[in-house]
Request: fold
Amino acid sequence: MSGGEMSRDRFERGLLRVLKPLVILVLFVMTAFPFLYMVMLSVRDIQELILEPGSLWPRAFTLDTYVDVLTRQGFLTFLRNSAIVAVASVACTLLISIPGAYAVARLRFFGRRQVHFLFLAVYLFPAIVLAIPLFVLFTMLGLRGSLLGLIAVYIAQTVPVTVYMLRNYFETVPRSVEEAAAIDGCTRLSTIWRVVLPLSKPALMATGLYAFMIAWNEFLFALLFLVDKRESWTVSLGLSQLAGSIEVPTTVLMAGSVVLTLPIVIVFFASERLLTEGLTAGAEKG
Reply:
């Protein structure tokens, strides 16, 4: 390598060392600032906000907005409903996806190579296309206004992608480990339970978090099926009601937004390591 090439390489490395933290800082500020501003608004008094709308840091912090949004606006009930829907959706999605993904990854059957693409073909249809038929069907079945019906819709939404994600991960599990379990007398189901699932915890966390975020944040089907029954509303539906009311102060609306966002943030950071491992390993081929 000539002297000119060495100096250019040294310059590029130095430039990358300088730009890397700057780019990370800019991206962090762009991501964190809206959430920080939302939190700051949620703990401000509405009179102070009217007098000093451009001020970011409040003179005095107040939690009255959270008391208002959780009690008078009914968000405690909405949180309970969202938690029921999200947890049930995650549990049922994984219960269906694990054997389905394992079958596609390990078993030999006609159309095996095409079946996961057929799963993903569901996402070619916009949600609004399915909304009206589902509305009519659930009305006929008496499930409109029921959390059970909403859970069924979310399961149908998330199963195709979770099968695809888990299938990619299961293919990275060495076959020799499963063969050793079979030699020890394990059946196919016990092999999945005792061998495959413990090795697949990162992928299970990633797919579970994906299903949880879909069920927690989804709005269209919640509006369609639950709008007539306020006691069954989810958090996203309750927040929409706050946003559409001119009587609700901006600070209370921001408190509702924090209540909607905070559980996802907590779950994400609590499972960040397993989530990262699950996403990267699921993209690899063993």
